């Protein structure tokens, strides 16, 4: 099976690593890829946001399966274009990808499906913004306020703050940029990322993970696309995955099918384990980054066959998933200035070591690896338990060199120390 992965980040590098180890995968390409994926997959120059270009690249390379990594191509219709070209594609249609592309749409689906989530207010203008913030204050007795960009924002479109003025400022910036805003009630409790592979009917959940969104230790600093992650979750309550499958994942997939917009691909539920039970924070329509980097190393089942079964509607016939013992931790090494104004073009050394996944890198003409984004590397390790995996990951971080790089030093620490209580 010839597999083409679309995207250029550490998620795509992790997908390529997992697919390469599948005996059923005879050839592998990544478009456009990065300096890391070039070492194990053909590099295809393509504009990943252009569905026509993606389908053309898949056809010319003679792909049997296309795996779309990022959300932008999915919302733009890349999976539709690939399927129209007669090629199997792992990724939802543009219609179904609205579960991520429009938070308001996702709320409508959850309401219809009876999925537990936060109360929300859709905002289309400044007056509605102030009214919604007033209602939140009345409901909660004040703060915190949760203000989200209703559209795609690369994981950085949400502000959670106790400052009413800061909440209003973020909402106005989104509105001034032509977007719409969703205000939500605050959900307490730890957050969980749970991926599920689905063909639009059958749903197979993966192991839960947790990522770290804030840039700095102690969950301080600005929101980012993710500074690290770990899996599994030693503090997760028994039966969590089965509960989420029954109350969130399967009902959502069933509701999308009922609407005539079946969701086939990777359904990512961002969850909060609140004092009132599990609540959905948001849905994503693709593998999460950086959680993919810790979930896939624990998956013993060959990835290519699993994704092909989802893409061809045969997931019900797929054997049960098998998982390796132990744990995995990934630490993101970010460029100076991330996330506001990341510096690019700096040499990166040590990036060819085991477990170092490339996120924002390119190869210079002389073969030097250069930084090309805010999140430059995702340094990943496995271990017999979370403490061992964490230690190994940070030992690998120490072997990387990038001028003025930044990384958190506390990824998975609270879980190792038993400080997370659901």
Q: Topology, please?
A:
Layout: E1 2-7, H1 10-20, E2 27-32, E3 42-43, H2 51-61, E4 65-68, H3 71-76, H4 78-84, E5 88-90, H5 98-101, H6 103-113, E6 120-123, H7 126-140, E7 145-149, E8 158-161, H8 164-176, E9 181-184, E10 191-198, E11 203-205, E12 210-211, E13 214-216, E14 220-223, E15 228-231, H9 240-258, E16 265-274, E17 277-284, H10 292-295, H11 303-311, E18 327-334, E19 348-349, E20 356-358, E21 361-363, E22 369-371, E23 375-383, H12 386-397, E24 401-402, H13 413-416
Parallel strand pairs: 1-2, 1-4, 2-3, 4-5
Antiparallel strand pairs: 6-9, 7-8, 7-9, 10-11, 10-16, 12-15, 13-14, 15-18, 16-17, 18-23, 19-24, 20-23, 21-22
Structure overview:
The protein has a 5-stranded parallel beta sheet with strand order 3-2-1-4-5, with helices on both faces. A 5-stranded antiparallel beta sheet has the order 12-15-18-23-20. Strands 6-9-7-8 form a 4-stranded antiparallel beta sheet, with helices on both faces. Helix 2 packs across helix 4, helix 6 packs across helix 9 and helix 7 packs antiparallel against helix 8. 30% of the residues lie in helices and 26% in strands. The model has no long low-confidence stretch (mean pLDDT 94). The protein has 4 domains: 93 residues, 3-Layer(aba) Sandwich (Rossmann fold); 66 residues, Dna Ligase, domain 1; 109 residues, ATP-grasp fold, B domain (D-amino Acid Aminotransferase, Chain A, domain 1), CATH 3.30.470.20; 88 residues, Glycinamide Ribonucleotide Synthetase, Chain A, domain 4 (Alpha-Beta Complex), CATH 3.90.600. The longest helix has 19 residues. 51% of the residues are buried. The chain has 422 residues and is of the alpha+beta class. It starts with a strand and ends in a 6-residue tail after the last helix.
